[in-house]
Amino acid sequence: VGGVFDISNSDRLGFSEVELVQKVIDGVKLLVRMEKALEKKLLIDSLVPRSGKCPTDPNYPDLSKHNNHMAKHLTQDIYKKLAPLKTPNGFTLDRAIQTGVDNPGHPFIMTVGMVAGDEESYSVFADIFDPVIESRHNGYKKTDKHCTDLNPEGLSGGENLDPKYVLSSRVRTGRSIRGFCLPPFCSRAERKGIEKVVTKALDNLTGDLKGKYYPLSNMTEKEQQQLIDDHFLFDKPVSPLLLASCMARDWPEARGIYH
User: Fold this and answer.
1) Exposed (0-12), middle (13-18) or buried (19+): which is 96, by Cβ within 10 Å?
2) What is the distance, to the nearest Å, from the Cα of residue 80 to the centroid of all Cα atoms in its chain?
3) Cα separation of 20 and 8, whole Å?
4) Rg of the Cα trace of the chain?
5) Which of the 8 DSSP states describes residue 117?
6) pLDDT tens profile 230-249
7) Helical packing angle, 126-136 and 93-102, nearest 10°
8) Are 128 and 74 in contact (CB under 8 A)?
9) I want to staple 70 with a disulfide (CB 3.0 to 4.6 A). Which of 113, 119, 179, 197 is the partner?
């Protein structure tokens, strides 16, 4: 208040009482040196500590108020190592973490905070993706193998949900196609290519799986609203997380529903 600041030590465990007090003494003395240098209109760059939490790279984002897995694991050393790198498609670390930088998250809800732009993102930026994935997925390590079970006989209790409260339900899955960048980074041409590959495969379905592909760009407003009301059609993304991830680019081009 009024140019007067309270200085305290954030360290607690792992240091003796003497060491903790000494840290405060050394810190205060350093601050005094800085103040005196500034009074003489001198630069203090050489006095600023280059370890701990003081950023050494001017591009390192301020994540001090963030609650997401990326912010939890992105140290300055990792950023310094990965920031200059690019995947063969040109995807960078800064693109990967932008959504987590722009969206700090909720104090009680920890979001992921980053996205992959292509398959190679997971290997080029493994030093940050590996710990984020492990943290987000309850200890799922890089060496673990995902278990697949598509037998509906293993389910129980889903046949008698009270319709007064449960209006609809769906099973949602996501798949990527090798050779194409992922939604946060794919080009318009790639997105059209994905649409072509998927619709060609869907045309081969028969029996009760046979349906029709409705591209959003050619759909009438009536058709679109009906599919939304029936809980079949997704609406344009409005979530800040998705928008910061560049997921809504060129909407609704090369988007649609097979029904």
Assistant:
1) buried
2) 19
3) 10
4) 26
5) S
6) 777 777 889 999 999 999 99
7) 40
8) yes
9) 113
